[in-house]
C-alpha cells in the first residue's frame, strides 16, 4: 500500500474522464509519459489491470471501474481534509448540547456576523458531554457542566437561573416560583451525559426518583404529558417554549455556570473574540 499515492489516483481518474492519455496529461498539466508511468506503477502496486488500451480509446476494466469509483472518493476526502485543516480563519462552529445561548443566541449570531464578516458562524447541536468538541463536530463548545478532560480549556462566560419545567396543568404551575423541596416527590427527568440537573441538588434523604432521557424533544414531550418534571438552565426556556409546558424559577437552587470550551493545544483563532462577546452578552443580562 505504501506504493500508492494521490498522483497515481489523479492520473487514473483523469484518463477515464478525458478518454486518452494525451488529454489526461493536458488536463493535469504534466507530460504524457508521466501519466503513463503513474498508471503503470499503480497497476503494478495493485497487481491488477485497470485500463484497457486500444488504438482508438482507453477504457477501464471491470476492476478499473471499481478502483476509479474508490479513487474519486479518496480524492474528494483529501479535498475535504485540506479544507478542514485550512478553514480555521473562515469558519467557526460552536457546539452546544441542549439550548445554545438561550436568550443571547440571536444577539450572538447577529453581532458576530456584523463584526466578523470573514468568519462564518455555525451553531451545532451535539448531545455529548463536550457538545461535539471531542467528536470534532465543532471548534468551540458551550457547556453547562464541568469538563474533566484535560485536553480542553474552559472559561466562565455567565450564569443562568435554574428553572423547573412543568406541565401547564400541574398544581405547581400556578406558583410564581418553587423550591427544591416542592419537587422531591416528583419524577425527575435527567440526561446523565449533558444535563445540569442531578439528584445531588437535593439533600441525601429527600432526593426525587429519576428517569433518564437523551433528547430535549423527548424531555419536553414527557413533561407536557404530566409524567415527570425537569430542572434545567434558564436558556432551555428561552430556546424551547412549548405549548403545555411552563417554566418556574427554583429559588433555592444554585445557578448554572455557562462555560466556553476549546482544545488546549489547538484553539480556534476566534477564541478570544467569542469569549469577549459572550461575556459581554451575559454581563448585560
Mean pLDDT: 93
Major sheet: 5 strands, mixed
Q: What is the ordering of alpha helices and beta strands?
A: HHHEEHEHEEEEEEHEHEEH
> How many individual domains?
3
CATH fold group of the largest domain? D-Maltodextrin-Binding Protein, domain 2
Which parts are unreliable, with pLDDT below 50 for 5 consecutive residues or more?
A: none
Biggest β-sheet: strands ordered side by side in the sheet: 4-3-5-12-6
Notes on the structure:
This protein is of the alpha/beta class. It folds into three domains: 6-87, Orthogonal Bundle (Arc Repressor Mutant, subunit A); 91-156 and 258-284, Periplasmic binding protein-like II (D-Maltodextrin-Binding Protein, domain 2, 3-Layer(aba) Sandwich), CATH 3.40.190.10; 162-254, Periplasmic binding protein-like II (D-Maltodextrin-Binding Protein, domain 2). Helices cover 35% and strands 22% of the residues. It has eight helices and twelve strands. Strand 1 and strand 2 (58-60) form a beta hairpin. Helix 1 (6-18) packs across helix 3 (32-46), helix 1 (6-18) crosses helix 4 and helix 2 crosses helix 3 (32-46).
Amino acid at each position: 500500500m505504501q506504493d500508492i499515492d494521490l498522483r497515481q489516483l489523479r492520473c487514473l481518474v483523469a484518463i477515464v474522464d478525458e478518454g486518452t492519455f494525451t488529454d489526461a496529461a493536458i488536463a493535469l498539466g504534466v507530460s504524457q509519459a508521466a501519466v503513463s508511468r503513474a498508471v503503470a506503477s499503480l497497476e503494478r502496486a495493485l497487481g491488477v489491470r485497470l485500463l484497457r488500451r486500444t488504438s482508438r480509446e482507453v477504457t477501464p476494466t471491470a476492476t478499473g471501474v471499481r478502483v476509479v469509483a474508490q479513487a474519486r472518493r479518496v480524492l474528494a476526502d483529501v479535498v475535504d481534509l485540506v479544507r478542514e485543516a485550512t478553514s480555521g480563519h473562515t469558519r467557526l462552529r460552536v457546539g452546544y448540547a441542549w439550548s445554545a445561548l438561550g436568550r443571547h443566541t440571536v444577539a450572538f449570531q447577529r453581532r458576530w456576523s456584523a463584526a466578523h464578516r470573514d468568519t462564518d458562524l455555525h451553531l451545532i447541536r451535539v448531545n455529548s458531554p463536550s457538545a461535539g468538541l471531542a467528536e470534532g463536530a465543532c471548534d468551540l463548545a458551550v457547556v453547562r457542566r464541568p469538563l474533566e478532560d484535560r485536553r480542553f480549556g474552559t472559561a466562565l462566560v455567565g450564569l443562568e437561573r435554574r428553572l423547573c419545567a412543568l406541565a401547564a396543568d400541574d398544581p405547581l404551575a400556578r406558583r410564581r416560583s418553587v423550591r427544591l423541596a416542592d419537587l422531591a416527590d416528583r419524577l425527575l427527568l435527567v440526561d446523565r451525559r449533558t444535563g445540569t440537573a442531578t439528584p445531588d441538588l437535593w439533600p441525601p434523604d429527600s432526593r426525587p426518583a429519576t428517569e433518564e432521557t437523551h433528547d430535549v424533544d423527548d424531555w419536553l414531550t414527557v413533561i407536557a404529558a404530566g409524567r415527570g418534571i425537569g430542572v434545567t438552565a434558564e436558556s432551555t426556556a428561552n430556546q424551547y417554549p412549548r405549548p403545555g409546558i411552563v417554566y418556574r424559577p427554583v429559588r433555592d437552587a444554585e445557578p448554572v455556570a455557562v462555560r466556553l470550551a476549546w482544545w488546549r493545544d489547538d484553539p480556534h483563532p476566534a477564541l478570544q473574540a467569542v469569549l469577549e462577546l459572550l461575556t459581554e452578552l451575559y454581563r448585560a443580562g
